[in-house]
Amino acid sequence: xxxxxxxxxxxxxxxxxxxxxxxxxxxxxxxxxxxxxxxxxxxxxxxxxxxxxxxxxxxxxxxxxxxxxxxxxxxxxxxxxxxxxxxxxxxxxxxxxxxxxxxxxxxxxxxxxxxxxxxxxxxxxxxxxxxxxxxxxxxxxxxxxxxxxxxxxxxxxxxxxxxxxxxxxxxxxxxxxxxxxxxxxxxxxxxxxxxxxxxxxxxxxxxxxxxxxxxxxxxxxxxxxxxxxxxxxxxxxxxxxxxxxxxxxxxxxxxxxxxxxxxxxxxxxxxxxxxxxxxxxxxxxxxxxxxxxxxxxxxxxxxxxxxxxxxxxxxxxxxxxxxxxxxxxxxxxxxxxxxxxxxxxxxxxxxxxxxxxxxxxxxxxxxxxxxxxxxxxxxxxxxxxxxxxxxxxxxxxxxxxxxxxxxxxxxxxxxxxxxxxxxxxxxxxxxxxxxxxxxxxxxxxxxxxxxxxxxxxxxxxxxxxxxxxxxxxxxxxxxxxxxxxxxxxxxxxxxxxxxxxxxxxxxxxxx
Length: 511
Description:
Elements: E1 4-7, E2 10-13, H1 28-38, H2 50-73, H3 139-145, H4 168-173, H5 184-199, H6 229-242, H7 253-266, E3 268-270, E4 273-275, H8 281-298, H9 301-317, H10 335-350, H11 357-369, E5 371-372, E6 377-378, H12 387-400, H13 407-419, H14 426-439, H15 441-458, H16 474-492, H17 494-497, H18 501-504
Antiparallel strand pairs: 1-2, 3-4, 5-6
Helix pairs in contact: 1-2, 5-16, 6-7, 6-8, 6-16, 8-9, 8-10, 9-10, 10-12, 12-13, 12-14, 14-15, 14-16
């Protein structure tokens, strides 16, 4: 690879080099039941007291039910509430639809380009020492999402579905899986990346692709150019949620609560659902995916309506003729925008939200329209194969129920395996890694070993950039260091971010 590349008039190091830069409470039902049991008369009560006991017990039941009903309807400490802002209260930001960092600009059509094999030895990184102590939430977040973190009931994560393998205990258990799982170095890199993202969150809870707008003030190079704050915020939240951190649990509770609050405050109510676009359906899909994952991991009732209405907007925005999505609602679809919407809808369905069956039929119709070789490869707007689009199409097919004995799926996976991870294309690596992970076997272990060690090696470890990544490609030039960091973290979280489809049955509707 070339040792440097130009970004504007500024030289940046290659991905293989790092340039130093100077510097729980009980539910109301259980509590009511416990109070009730204290007053049940025992079997030795004399007959003359029975009438009085029954009368008092009845009054106590009525009182307990009244208290419980009041807690459900009016008490700010008995429930988590979220008040949606209407269009008149939200800022309407008119931005150009962005094709990067999440589009296919720069990809070659036709046959896949030959990508060099990454050969990078592991680099030892000492895990950061973190505090597990309670984190207080700002009053603005508490007003929106309810009680303080220490007062929250930690709802068990759902066992079924694709999100049930997250959390510190599951992550630690996976360290013994060798080439098929994470390493101590890659786990340390994940935590370092999350630390960098947390440090570049703005005071209002958002993230911007131009990370200089945070308190960083230009200490980190390679800012992005895209304007979508909901896209940047959703992408950053996904990195934290992928490791099992939520607004209820873990050391990053405050960071995640602020981010969710920002999405809620920025979203626009419409008759068709909650609009998180800020000018592009990319942002809608990414932000909705974050809200659905946050709800799935916590079952927080305050998030259910917000997640459902965000899903509703995606359903509304689908091209009802071709079945895909693009930059604006109803437009003829492309594969990259469609991929984010499908992942959001799948996460919503796995968390118990409603997605019409007709939406999935249309998704199949769209995928059929951009496939070649019976579904082994996929294009952007047509069947002309492209690497990232093929990875997206295969992943969508896996979630749609394609089985490993399907010849087209096997051919597509073999093609990705032969192409190998790309030294600079973090977007291709993100989707292709998910496909290879779900496929499993020796192909996955070889892919994982190569990319995992490469990401560990290319992590910045000095100065204010420590804990971040930057790769020089068209996507990265638009999304900047924040985009590269969030996508790299999510790639290194794949082991516990999703359950393997073909090993544990995380997908519905097999065929």
